[in-house]
Each structure stands twice: as structure tokens, then as C-alpha cells.
Amino acid sequence: MNVDLFDFALPPERIALHPAAPRDAARMLVLDGDRTLDRSVADLPQALRPGDCLVFNDTRVIPAQLEGRRGEARIAATLHKREGPRRWRAFVKGAKRLRDGDRIDFGAGVEATSTARGEDGSWLLDFAGDEPVELLLERAGRMPLPPYIAAKRGIEARDAEDYQTMFAADPGAVAAPTAALHFTPRLMEALSEAGIGHETLTLHVGAGTFLPVKVEDTVDHKMHAEWGRIDAVVADRLNAVRGRGGRVIAVGTTSLRLLESATGEDGVIAPFAGDTAIFITPGYRFRAIDGLMTNFHLPRSTLFMLVSALMGRERMQAAYAHAIASGYRFYSYGDASLLIP
């Protein structure tokens, strides 16, 4: 499909620079069948049914942005995928200044060697020493705010908490699964009282999620792979939810993409551990999920293509036009949508 079909005009003032406070006070646009409803995230227990199950991504964002030097040259790196115990693939500003075997000093006793440049321009970085890389990043790294926020303001101390979900447990992501940022212990208690369950999986979100689609046709776009895991007990419980007539509602496109990657043509969710580069566009037949809670996405992005596949492109274009006209806040720190086809 032509990428231009997924374009829309978004006023810059609609981009949220901070999350709602409290988190569950954010607005929520509900598309349920043919209905379009303006609600808040706190209304989620009433928007779902007893027996439904929400699926969260428990990945934890690491301080994956590093600034350093190779000699006199300044190097900025954003880690985006672990390739080994001490090896990460990274997008690098100043990449043309690097060669195989160059040593980069990121300060605070953190050094890495560039070992191989990928076709996409990224580099493999091998970190020196014996300390876990996560500890090195805690010393030298910064939280990797999305570029559309970082371009408008600097990183603030509160981002270290604001940009983690309440489910964050497994370190490895360089971007938050932002739909889950709206959840609070109070909301989870209300969901439980309404008979709505929840499960967790892990998908370590990579920086590739922010890369623009540069091709004219979706068939020519290549997704970056991300590592994920669904435990066998979680897969069994989700299959049981659907067996009882409940609905599986993915919280975030990351949860959705991993669930769909793990599900066969028969609709059975299987245990999963490995990379996924699934690219969902209109025409895709969903097998694992019955709905999606997600934030509002970039024009021409793979994520807007995904929600268009779920609800229909014209429906989503109309919904986004309504959201823009109604003052909804967009992107990672913005408001939510609940999409039930």
C-alpha cells in the first residue's frame, strides 16, 4: 500500500511533553464497533467486560543514550538491541567517523569498541570490562526520550519515573510500552473488582520503533527485530480466557505484535522466546487479540498502519481527525485509545 494513505496533519501543540497526573486521568477515545466515545482511562473497567484479560509488556527502559568521544570526535549512541552479554547494536550520530576497532570513551569508566556496521547504518558496540552493561548504563547513560519530545525539551529528572510503567521489571527496552503508562494501582484494583484479569509478557522495545518509513510502498519497508518472550503458563491462561468467551485486549502495540507473532493459524497462543520483526498492515488477519489499548501514533508510521489494520484505515483517519479537533494529546506521554473491532 502507498505510505501516503497513512498520512495526516498533526498540529505541533497536540504533542504531549509530560504525562497526565495522575496517570489514569488521561483521556481515552473508545472505538467499540461502530461507536465512538470520549472517555477517560479511569473509565476502562466500564468499557470492558467481566472475563476480559489485559496483556501488559513488563519490559523496563534502560538509560540507553550515551555520549562520548573517539579521540577528538564526538560520538552519540542510542542502544537499541542486545546482541550478546556485552554487545549491543546502536544507532550512532557521527557514525561516519567510526571504523571497525575504534574505542569510544563514554565517561564514568564506560568504554566500548565499534566492531561492525550494519546495512541500516547501525553499529555493534562491544563494552569493555566485567561489570554488567546495565550497571555501566546507570553510570553513563540517559533515559532515551522519544525524538519528538527530546526535540522540544531537555531530559528532566522526573522522566526516570515518568517513562517507566508500573509493570516495568525486565530491563532491556530503549523505549517504553507507552499505553501502559496510564495504569495505576488504583486502576488495577478497579479492573480486578470488575472481573477483568491481566497477564504480562516481555518485548524489549527497540529504537527502530521511532524510525520513519522512508519507502513509498509498505511492501518495501523492513522492520527492525525486537526480542520477546511469552511464558508457557501465560500462553495457557490466555488461551483459557478465549476458551471461556473472554477477550484478550493487548495494552500497547508491543504486546499485540508479540502475541500475534506467537499465535498460529488456529488461533492458539504458543510459548515464545526470540526475535520478531512482524509488520502489520491493512489486510492482516488478527489471530491472538480481540482489542487494543494504545496511544495516538505518528503520521505515516508503522504503528498507525497497525491500528488501521485492526479498525480500518478510513475509520482511524476519522478517529484521529476527531481526536485532533477535540484536543486529545498525542504520542508517548499523550492520551489513550481503546480499539475494539
Automatic annotation (TrEMBL):
It comes from the Bacteria. One of its GO terms (biological process) is tRNA queuosine(34) biosynthetic process. InterPro entries: QueA, QueA_dom1, QueA_dom2, QueA_sf. Keywords: Cytoplasm, Glycosyltransferase, Isomerase, Queuosine biosynthesis, S-adenosyl-L-methionine, Transferase. Its EC number is 2.4.99.17. Pfam families: Queuosine_synth. One of its GO terms (cellular component) is cytoplasm. The keyword Cytoplasm applies. It is an enzyme of class 2 (transferase). Pathway: tRNA modification; tRNA-queuosine biosynthesis. The keyword Ribonucleoprotein does not apply. It catalyses: 7-aminomethyl-7-carbaguanosine(34) in tRNA + S-adenosyl-L-methionine = epoxyqueuosine(34) in tRNA + adenine + L-methionine + 2 H(+). It is found in: Cytoplasm. GO terms for molecular function: S-adenosylmethionine:tRNA ribosyltransferase-isomerase activity. Transfers and isomerizes the ribose moiety from AdoMet to the 7-aminomethyl group of 7-deazaguanine (preQ1-tRNA) to give epoxyqueuosine (oQ-tRNA). Monomer. NCBIfam families: PRK00147.1, queA. Belongs to the QueA family. HAMAP family: QueA. This is S-adenosylmethionine:tRNA ribosyltransferase-isomerase. It comes from Sphingomonas abaci. The gene is queA.
